[in-house]
User: Which sequence fits this backbone?
């Protein structure tokens, strides 16, 4: 299955993705995790991404899309994947569509985790990652509203809306049930 996870920062996409990846036996591909791994390894890509991430802004799409293209071309992603954090803009969605089309592939579903802003701010402050301070959180939510939320309409028929305010287990079960139907 080829899936995209959507939702605001702090919606719990990463947590759900790990569980779904185990259940569905497809790799979890998180652009945030890939960037963070590059930063901790001190690669050029990490250096290019860091200042944007620290500010809560989007890393330029040219950089991000190349990284995703490379990752999707690895053998473990040949039969399916769970993309978390990409696409984040309409432009990225169009690039993803092209990447898949070149291989004769397409997305099966887009899971949209629906959660209020109050809850995501609370979750991010509790998580306390490097880029989880109040100012950066505000920027990331603004970027989400302006750039990422339009993807909800863009994906139309592929979209599965999942209430993401319950327990981790309930959300995971609801997601798997929605994919079954
Ligand atoms: P969250 O889900 O909390 O926003 P992520 O780990 O998905 O956290 O992303 C962290 C940061 O990595 C983003 O704020 C952004 O700077 C960068 N990033 C991740 N994915 C993308 C993307 N598709 N395009 C541009 N920047 C990205």
Assistant:
């Amino acid at each position: 299955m080829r899936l995209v996870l959507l939702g605001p920062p702090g919606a719990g996409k990463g947590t759900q993705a790990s569980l779904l990846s185990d259940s569905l036996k497809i790799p979890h591909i998180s652009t945030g995790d890939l960037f963070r791994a590059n930063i901790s390894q001190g690669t050029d890509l990490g250096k290019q991404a860091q200042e944007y991430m620290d500010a809560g802004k989007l890393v330029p799409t040219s950089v991000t899309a190349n990284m995703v293209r490379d990752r999707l071309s690895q053998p473990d992603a040949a039969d399916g994947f769970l993309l978390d954090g990409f696409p984040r803009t309409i432009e990225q969605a169009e690039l993803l569509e092209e990447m898949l089309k070149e291989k004769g592939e397409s997305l099966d579903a887009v899971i949209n985790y629906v959660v209020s802003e109050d809850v995501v701010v609370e979750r991010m402050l509790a998580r306390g990652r490097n880029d989880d301070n109040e100012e950066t959180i505000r920027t990331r939510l603004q970027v989400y509203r302006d750039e990422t939320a339009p993807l909800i309409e863009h994906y139309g028929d592929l979209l599965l809306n999942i209430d993401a305010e319950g327990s981790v287990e309930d959300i995971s079960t609801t997601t798997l049930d929605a994919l079954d139907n």
User: Anything to note?
Assistant: The first strand starts at residue 2 and ends at 6. The mean pLDDT is 96. The pocket of adenosine-5'-diphosphate is lined by residues 9-10, 13, 31-32, 35, 52-53, 56-59, 64, 85-86, 88, 92, 140 (CB under 6 Å).
